[in-house]
Amino acid sequence: MLVIFAIPVPAAAQIYKWVDADGNVVYSDVPNNQAEEINPPEVNTVPMPKLPPRPAAEEKDEPAGYNHFSIASPRNDEVVRDNNGRLTIVLQTRPELQGGHYFSILIDGYVMVKKSTQYRVTVEDISRGEHKITALLRDANGKTLATSKPVIVHMKRASIIPVNRAAIGPVYSNGAPVQPGPAGVRFKPGPATPAFKPGPVAPTAPVQP
Known about the structure:
Blueprint: E1 2-4, E2 15-19, E3 25-28, E4 36-38, E5 68-73, E6 78-81, E7 87-94, E8 102-107, E9 110-116, E10 120-123, E11 129-138, E12 144-147, E13 151-156
Parallel strand pairs: 1-3, 6-13
Antiparallel strand pairs: 2-3, 2-4, 5-7, 7-10, 8-9, 8-11, 11-12, 11-13
């Protein structure tokens, strides 16, 4: 029987081997008068793989030099009523816009404002219906530093077609359309005039010399 005392020892410690009274082979780092000094085989070691360096800090979803960029107005899903299709967009940044940086505004993917440093921008003639607004924050080289969260608006404009008007025609002084009355009695022509019949030809007077 083989008996091993699993005792953690320094790598340089000496190992001793002997057989006890029961015939068991014993290994230990403590010698006795029956022990035989042995040299254990070298332990194979595997070098630890090098781990990639940890990033200094996790990247955050923030524009360079700014900690906030958004569309403050209109609010998402807001209804805007303007007969001229006028829409005012208010932007927010923290901190203030840096030198050389500017805003671009897209509506439904089309650039409506190419370059502006104003936080309040008005665009006109926006058609009726639903529109998606997105703002871009760009540096002096035109590189997009940040994109705002899209905002959906619903533009309402009065119709240019008269609501309470009949077909184009005469109107009263108050503007109300004149409604035609019942049709008059249908005209019935009388009997045709008798055809003209020429009478006899009158004699010609003699010509005096």
